[in-house]
Specification:
This protein is mainly beta. It has one domain: Jelly Rolls (Sandwich). About 10% of the residues lie in helices and about 50% in strands. The protein has a seven-stranded mixed sheet with strand order 5-4-6-3-2-1-7. Strand 1 and strand 2 form a beta hairpin. The longest helix has 6 residues. The mean pLDDT is about 95.
Length: about 130
């Protein structure tokens, strides 16, 4: 199979809830069709630290992700309809099919390289904003 490469489709920033300071600025690929959200980052070799994949769902609900066919570890960040971090599944391991649920309703999910959420000091309530190209 041909390697799938990152396609920049927008930009995303994460700010601290309590003082609005910038935690991270990323280039994002957007997954919003059924096919894109089901496939996600499967079959890819990795991402750069300034890259992420933002999943956009039609409805806010409890989401469950898992790492089937995903070749590199990820932090999975669940985000509610108000663009606030709900919960984080840290260091999800390649090929692991264990369910990794959100701790509350989410409408968006951001996948980034494992370890970045700790590096940023990301916490529940932190604020996401994004633009599409």
């Amino acid at each position: 199979t041909k390697e799938v490469t990152f396609k920049k489709e927008g930009e995303l920033t994460i700010k601290k809830a309590e003082n609005d300071s910038l935690l991270a600025s990323l280039n994002i690929e957007i997954a919003e069709t059924d096919y894109e959200t089901e496939t996600g980052l499967m079959y890819r070799k990795g991402m750069d630290p300034n890259q992420g994949m933002l999943f956009i769902f039609e409805h806010e609900s409890r989401k469950i992700f898992y790492m089937k066919n995903t070749e590199f570890p990820l932090d999975i960040i669940y985000i509610n309809s108000n663009l606030r971090v709900v919960s984080i599944q840290k260091n999800a391991q390649p090929y692991n099919e264990t369910s990794l649920p959100s701790e509350g309703p989410a409408q968006y999910v951001l996948e980034v390289n494992a370890g970045l959420s700790d590096q940023w000091g990301l916490k529940g309530g932190d604020i996401i904003s994004y633009t599409k190209n």
